[in-house]
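To fix ideas, we reproduce below a protein record of this kind.
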Amino acid sequence: MSDKKLITEKKALGSRIAELRKKVIDPSTNKPISQEELGLRTGNAKKTIGEIERGNTNPTFETLFKIARELKVPIIELFNYSK
């Protein structure tokens, strides 16, 4: 896979994670969970979640699994984005 294609895929994955995160409502605030909250729930820093959502890092399978679990979606749903 070319570097350009890899960058495009990472950004698409990150955008999809951000989109799904914003659909999960925090019952204490009645607002979408924040990057910080998702980080706390998955054992990652807010900065790491932000880097993933911007497509600036390669998350591990374990991290993606934890994110999917907290977003209450099958892991394959993270990759369900238009190409």
